[in-house]
Structures are given as structure tokens and as C-alpha cells.
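Archive record
______________

***
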Amino acid sequence: MKALPFPCIRPAQDCVLEALPQMGGILSSNDALRDAIADGLMLKDPGAAYYVYECSGEPGRVTGVVAICPAGVLAGDGATPAGATAAARAIAELKVQPRPVTLAYEASPVMDIILGAAKEGASLYAVTDPAGITHRMWEVKREDAVAAIRAMLDQAPEPTPADDPTYAAALAGAAQLLADEARTAGTYTGKEPFNFTVAALFPAAQVTGGAPQVPTGLLTHQIARF
């Protein structure tokens, strides 16, 4: 499968506990997000990276990798869930994907070793939510580590949806709306950020009982200029 590193918008490390409870407001409009970036509450990463995400609590510990995948992974069965159309418009207007979509994939033992090595470094975040679930995140930018993760993902079969179908449909709808706008303007190239979705990829064997969701705002993907 194709899964690439990406630049993201995320909370500043020393402001994450302040920022996460405010995400409803921060991600309510372009102006609110711009203000949060200007105030130092949020930041725009200058370069592309993979992110290793760990969720621990009941019923256990799960580790995934966050990357951008072609928006085609969001394809559903043709039926549009209730509420997806309005949510798609909101995402297209915000021009930011508020959280990664959750996907399951067939991970290899080598990938487990690579991600385990990444987790030996200092984490960007270690946040425990009101439900007692701890969310940790590591940034992977070193060239050799990025190349190793990409090689493993290139060899993996296409992932399968493991998220709320309404959210996945909303992301697909937002990508389509932005693509239609670009085609109407005569500027569409197929390489725009909205042609990709940021996804949290979890080993299928670890999420048979349901995959976790990365908290809203912890890793966002800017899909168009705002």
C-alpha cells in the first residue's frame, strides 16, 4: 500500500493539555485555527514525518503508524451514511482533516521492530484522557527510519476500514468537493493534499475487538490552503 510521511498541524508540546480540550473551538473555523497557530497553541510542522501512535489502557496496548494514504482507501459500499454530507462540507470548508481515519493492515514482525525502536526515543506527547486511556506519540523524521517504515508499508496489502463509516464517508466527500472545486477552476492536478487522507494504521491482529481513534486535533492534515 501507499502510505507516506506528511507535514501536520498539531498542538505545541508544552500546550497539548491546554489545546486538546479546546479543539472544538480551534477546529471550528479557519480563523480560529490561524489564531491558535499565531498564539503558539498549535504549530505547523515544517517538514514531513511519520508518527508512531500508542494507545494504552483497557483492554491493552496498541501501536500504529500515522501516514497519509490515497483517498481511495476511504471508498465505501456506495451508500452515504446519515450526517456524512454535512460533515463533508464542514471539513471541506475548514480545509483540515481533524483526526486520522483508523485503518487496519497486515503488519510484519520487522515493522513491529522498527516501530518499537522509534518508541525508545522521547515522545512528543503522553496524554491520559478522562476515560483513563493514555495516548503517546513519537515523530519519525530521520531519513533511514523514514525509509525503513516506507519500505515496510509499500510491501503491505491495502488496509481495511476500521473507523466510524460516517467519518470515513465525510472525509471522502470532502476530498470530492475540493477536487470538484479545483476542476471547475481548471487547476486540478491530482497531486493536491486533498487527494490523500491521514490515517492511523494499526496491525489487524491487534485490533480484532475494535481499533482506537487518535484524539481529535492531536494530528491533523491540511488538505487545502486556508
Observations:
- The first helix runs from residue 16 to 19.
- The first strand starts at residue 9 and ends at 11.
